[in-house]
Amino acid sequence: MSENQYILIKTICVQYEIEPSFLDELHGVGLVKIITIEQNQFILQEALGDLEKIIRLHQELNLNIEGIDVVFNLLNKVDTLQNELTTLKNKLYFYENE
Protein backbone atom coordinates (compact mmCIF):
# COMPACT_ATOMS: atom_id res chain seq x y z
CA MET A 1 0.00 0.00 0.00
CA SER A 2 1.23 3.46 -0.74
CA GLU A 3 1.70 6.13 1.89
CA ASN A 4 -1.21 8.25 0.61
CA GLN A 5 -3.68 5.60 1.77
CA TYR A 6 -2.84 6.41 5.39
CA ILE A 7 -3.90 9.35 7.50
CA LEU A 8 -1.64 10.58 10.28
CA ILE A 9 -3.21 10.26 13.73
CA LYS A 10 -1.98 13.74 14.71
CA THR A 11 -3.86 15.22 11.74
CA ILE A 12 -7.06 13.40 12.70
CA CYS A 13 -6.80 14.57 16.31
CA VAL A 14 -6.43 18.20 15.24
CA GLN A 15 -9.16 18.01 12.58
CA TYR A 16 -11.76 16.32 14.80
CA GLU A 17 -10.64 17.85 18.10
CA ILE A 18 -10.05 14.54 19.84
CA GLU A 19 -7.26 13.24 22.04
CA PRO A 20 -4.82 10.58 20.78
CA SER A 21 -5.69 8.54 23.89
CA PHE A 22 -9.27 8.23 22.55
CA LEU A 23 -7.93 6.60 19.39
CA ASP A 24 -5.68 4.36 21.49
CA GLU A 25 -8.73 3.18 23.44
CA LEU A 26 -10.62 2.51 20.19
CA HIS A 27 -7.64 0.54 18.95
CA GLY A 28 -7.57 -1.41 22.23
CA VAL A 29 -11.12 -2.69 21.75
CA GLY A 30 -10.63 -3.32 18.02
CA LEU A 31 -12.80 -0.54 16.62
CA VAL A 32 -9.90 1.21 14.88
CA LYS A 33 -6.72 -0.28 13.49
CA ILE A 34 -3.66 1.89 14.12
CA ILE A 35 -0.59 1.28 11.98
CA THR A 36 2.87 2.47 13.04
CA ILE A 37 5.34 3.44 10.33
CA GLU A 38 8.68 4.96 11.29
CA GLN A 39 7.46 6.05 14.74
CA ASN A 40 4.34 7.74 13.30
CA GLN A 41 0.86 6.36 13.84
CA PHE A 42 -1.68 6.17 11.02
CA ILE A 43 -5.11 4.77 10.21
CA LEU A 44 -6.20 3.58 6.80
CA GLN A 45 -8.07 6.14 4.74
CA GLU A 46 -10.87 3.64 4.13
CA ALA A 47 -11.53 3.46 7.90
CA LEU A 48 -12.18 7.20 8.14
CA GLY A 49 -15.95 6.83 7.59
CA ASP A 50 -16.33 4.47 10.54
CA LEU A 51 -14.08 6.68 12.64
CA GLU A 52 -16.29 9.69 11.90
CA LYS A 53 -19.34 7.69 13.02
CA ILE A 54 -17.54 6.73 16.21
CA ILE A 55 -16.56 10.32 16.92
CA ARG A 56 -20.15 11.48 16.41
CA LEU A 57 -21.47 8.77 18.74
CA HIS A 58 -18.94 9.80 21.35
CA GLN A 59 -19.39 13.57 21.06
CA GLU A 60 -23.08 13.97 20.24
CA LEU A 61 -24.52 11.08 22.26
CA ASN A 62 -21.80 11.05 24.92
CA LEU A 63 -21.28 7.30 24.53
CA ASN A 64 -18.27 5.69 26.14
CA ILE A 65 -16.01 3.22 24.34
CA GLU A 66 -18.00 0.20 25.51
CA GLY A 67 -21.27 1.78 24.32
CA ILE A 68 -19.76 2.55 20.93
CA ASP A 69 -18.53 -1.04 20.67
CA VAL A 70 -22.03 -2.36 21.40
CA VAL A 71 -23.61 0.00 18.84
CA PHE A 72 -21.12 -1.03 16.13
CA ASN A 73 -21.62 -4.73 16.85
CA LEU A 74 -25.40 -4.30 16.60
CA LEU A 75 -25.09 -2.29 13.37
CA ASN A 76 -22.89 -5.02 11.87
CA LYS A 77 -25.47 -7.66 12.83
CA VAL A 78 -28.26 -5.59 11.28
CA ASP A 79 -26.25 -5.23 8.05
CA THR A 80 -25.60 -8.98 7.98
CA LEU A 81 -29.28 -9.77 8.51
CA GLN A 82 -30.34 -7.28 5.84
CA ASN A 83 -27.93 -8.86 3.34
CA GLU A 84 -29.22 -12.32 4.22
CA LEU A 85 -32.82 -11.15 3.84
CA THR A 86 -32.07 -9.65 0.42
CA THR A 87 -30.42 -12.90 -0.70
CA LEU A 88 -33.38 -14.97 0.48
CA LYS A 89 -35.86 -12.61 -1.21
CA ASN A 90 -33.94 -12.94 -4.47
CA LYS A 91 -33.97 -16.73 -4.22
CA LEU A 92 -37.69 -16.73 -3.44
CA TYR A 93 -38.38 -14.43 -6.38
CA PHE A 94 -36.34 -16.74 -8.65
CA TYR A 95 -38.30 -19.84 -7.62
CA GLU A 96 -41.68 -18.11 -7.77
CA ASN A 97 -41.08 -16.99 -11.34
CA GLU A 98 -39.86 -20.28 -12.84
Written overview of the protein:
With 98 residues, the protein is mainly alpha-helical. The protein contains four helices and three strands, in the order βααββαα. It has helices spanning 9-16, 20-29, 48-60, 65-96; strands at residues 6-8, 35-37, 40-44. Strands 1-3-2 form a three-stranded antiparallel sheet. The radius of gyration is 18 Å and the shape is elongated.
Summarize the structure.
The chain has helices at residues 9-16, 20-29, 48-60, 65-96; strands spanning 6-8, 35-37, 40-44. The chain is mostly helical and 98 residues long.
- Quickly give the structural class: mainly alpha
What percentage of residues falls in helices of 4 or more residues? 55-70%
Shape: elongated
* Helical run tally: 4
Query: Which runs of at least 5 residues are low in confidence (pLDDT < 50)?
Result: none
Mean pLDDT: 92
Count of beta strands: 3
Rounded to an integer, what's the Rg over CA atoms? 18 Å
Strand order of the largest sheet: 1-3-2
Note the run of SSEs as H and E: EHHEEHH
Q: What kind of sheet is the major sheet?
A: 3 strands, antiparallel
Query: Beta fraction of the residues?
Result: 5-15%
From the N-terminal CA to the C-terminal CA, the straight-line distance is 47 Å
